[in-house]
Every structure is written in structure tokens, then in C-alpha cells.
Amino acid sequence: AIGQGTRTRLIGRERGYSGVGFGGISVGGIVNNRRQFGNLLTGVDHLPHTHNLEHNAFTMGRPEWGGHLADNLEAIVALHGAETIAAVIVEPMAGSTGVLVPPIGYLEKLREITRKHGILLIFDEVITGFGRVGGATASETLGVTPDIITMAKGLTNAAVPMGAVAISRHIHDGVVEGGPDGIELFHGYTYSGHPLAAAAGLATLDLYKSEGIFEHASSLHGYWQDAVHSLKGKRHIIDIRNMGIVAAIELAPHSGGVGKRGMQLFHKCFDNGLLVRATGDIIALSPPLILQKTHIDEIVGRIGELIETVD
Ligand SMILES: Cc1ncc(COP(=O)(O)O)c(C=O)c1O
């Protein structure tokens, strides 16, 4: 629409997850998803992920090491040519591959490099949006503004399926005003803007405000961080990391295979009334934002007891 039709490449990230549509798998970096579906979208490259136990194990909040990994984007730009790259897409905090917290300065640097080269920056905030890491978005919380934000889950409290994309004014004007007269945006699904989902979304946003949910969750960040990090030193635990009301507990893999120990702990938790998520040997925690300190004590206490019973 703005005369830059050579920009067709997308840059995703290793260990990224943006869902299981073709586009999401293409920019994502989970090998088991990727290997099932052939060549996926063409013209996609990937940044390295930022997870590094050697430098960052047991960091509370954002790690100090790793901001320089964003410089790999310069190498990718040099390889392909900036004028062939449309956008870089990352989750501000990677969720599904085990809570990879962005190193200090990392997202800032991605913003700087993309801006310099006229490349759009997309934050996939499907997990990080709506109070999960503090403000309405991770972008707001961290003070880094992308050009596009994708969102879902917390938008309707996941009670009704709905996703949304927020775009900056210059993209809107480029597409809507730069295109031919007629339909503003040649895109739409059968259920786009579904009235039921839109009503659920509006009601959810009202409740977030009237009940002060983001503020409540934010007031627990310190308590949550201290509680999850109190598990340091327990059997098998090789890392604990956290951001907002999210945490990951990484376990050393069992000699019987990767993921076995994580799954064992998952089942033990489930049988004892605690639902956690196991992604390989990483236990990911992302409890409802209405939680109270007693719930945090219960979650952490139970994991602390049960980890001692895992082989
Ligand atoms: C960051 C992120 N993006 C996207 C999705 C889901 O995308 P889809 O519904 O298209 O598979 C998820 C699901 O967990 C997610 O964590």
C-alpha cells in the first residue's frame, strides 16, 4: 500500500510460539511443530532465542545478560537486505517454550534496529497482554512500543474465543488511505468481530478496570517472585525465572529422557489439586490474576513438597 512491495520476509525467533496457524508455525521456533508441516511460509528467518542457563539461572525478573543477542538482527538484515524484510515478530516474553524473560535492553535494541531499517516490529502479546506482566501490555510495562500487537486470551478472559490485532496509526493510514477506494481492509473471517465475543471482551475490559485487576496483580509481583524463588535448592531444580504473575521452574532432565521429569511433576500436581503446565522439563505457572497471597503459598508449597517425590 505504501509502495514497498519487496518487503515480504518475516523474521521470527527460535523457541518462539505464535500458535499453530501456518504463519504462526512459520515464524515460531518449536521444531516438533515445524517438522510436521513441510516448507511452511517461504522467506522466513529466525533470531536466536535468549535462554541461557549458564549466564542467567535463578535471575529474578529480567536478566542482565543477553541484550546483545538482538544484534543478530543486524546480521540477518545484512544477509537478506533490509528492503526485503517486512517485519520481525517476537513474544516480548516467550511463554509456551518455558517463560523466557527478555534480557534488559533486548527488546529496546530490536526496536532500534527495526526502526532504523524501516522494518515493522510485531509483539505477540497473546500471553503477556491484559495484566499478566503488569500493565495492559508488556509493551506498556516495558516501555517499548512495537508497530503491531497481537492479542487474545485475556481479551475476553478466554471465556469466549476472540483475537485482535492493534496497529499503529501509520500502518492504518498506509493501508486504509493508501489503498484503492472501497473496502478498507481486504481481510476478514466468518466470525470476525462476532457480537458475542465482542460483548465478552467489553465486559472483561470493564471488569479489569472496575475491580482493579491489573493493579491487584501488580501488587503481588514481589510476593510471587520471592515465593517461587524460595524453591531454589530443591531437588532437580536448575533454574527459576519470573516476570509479572508468570514463573517457570526448570528441572534437570531425567536420564530416561527429556520431558519425563516435567510430566511426572505435572501428574503429581494434578493428582494433588494443582494444575501446572509442563513444557518439556519446565513447569510453567500462570495463575489467574485474581489470586491472593494464600493461593501463592499453596501453589509454591505444594510444588515444594511434590518435587521431593519425583524420580
Ligand atoms: C504467544 C502466543 N501466540 C499465539 C497463540 C495461539 O495462537 P493460535 O490460536 O493461532 O494457535 C498462543 C497460544 O498459546 C500463544 O501463546
Q: Could you explain how this protein is built, in words?
A:
The chain folds into 2 domains: 9-210, Aspartate Aminotransferase, domain 2 (3-Layer(aba) Sandwich), CATH 3.40.640.10; 220-307, Alpha-Beta Complex (Aspartate Aminotransferase, domain 1). The protein is 35% helix and 15% strand. The chain contains 12 helices and 10 strands. It has helices spanning 22-27, 31-34, 53-56, 72-80, 106-117, 138-142, 169-177, 195-210, 213-219, 221-229, 260-271, 293-307, and strands at residues 9-13, 44-47, 85-90, 120-124, 148-151, 164-167, 237-243, 246-251, 277-279, 282-285. α10 runs parallel beside α12. The N and C termini lie far apart (58 Å). Residues 17-21, 24, 91, 95-96, 124, 126-127 line the site of pyridoxal-5'-phosphate.
What are the defining features of this structure?
binds pyridoxal-5'-phosphate, 10 strands, 311 residues, six-stranded mixed sheet, Aspartate Aminotransferase, domain 1, alpha/beta, 2 domains
Describe, in short, the structure shown.
By secondary structure, this protein is α/β, with parallel strands linked by helices.
